[in-house]
Amino acid sequence: MKSITIRQLHDETGRWVRKAAALGELHVTERGKPVAKLVPATVAPTEPYFARRKLLPAFKAAKLTSGLDSTAGISAERDER
Question: Radius of gyration over alpha carbons of the chain, in Å?
């Protein structure tokens, strides 16, 4: 873990940001005490969340077959109780 001073960060911000992106976490100190962390940003996924997610097997099993109305299925389930 690399440590830099506020003065170093102020003088060469671009350089330290690039180093943080390449090396990982940098700690910023003021008078020898840690005051901040400079960390690389995470890369945002290219595809939306709903395209990446996996359906649970229970959800797949509960799908209605074509031509059925959901109210009929719900009513039948309630009548069983």
Answer: 27
When mean pLDDT is compared over 9-13, 42-46, 76-80, the highest value belongs to 9-13
According to the per-residue pLDDT averaged within each range, which of 28-32, 44-48, 65-69 is highest?
28-32
Check if the beta carbon of residue 57 is closer than 8 Å to that of residue 51: no
Each domain of the chain, given as residue ranges in start order, spans 2-38, 49-80
Class of domain 2-38: alpha beta
Among 59, 23, 53, 56, smallest CA distance to 40 is for 23
d(CA 68, CA 77): 14
Taking alpha carbons only, the member of 14, 18, 19 closest to residue 2 is 19
* Structure token pair of residue 61: 């099993």
Mind giving me the DSSP string for 13-36? HHHHHHHHHHH--EEEEETTEEEE
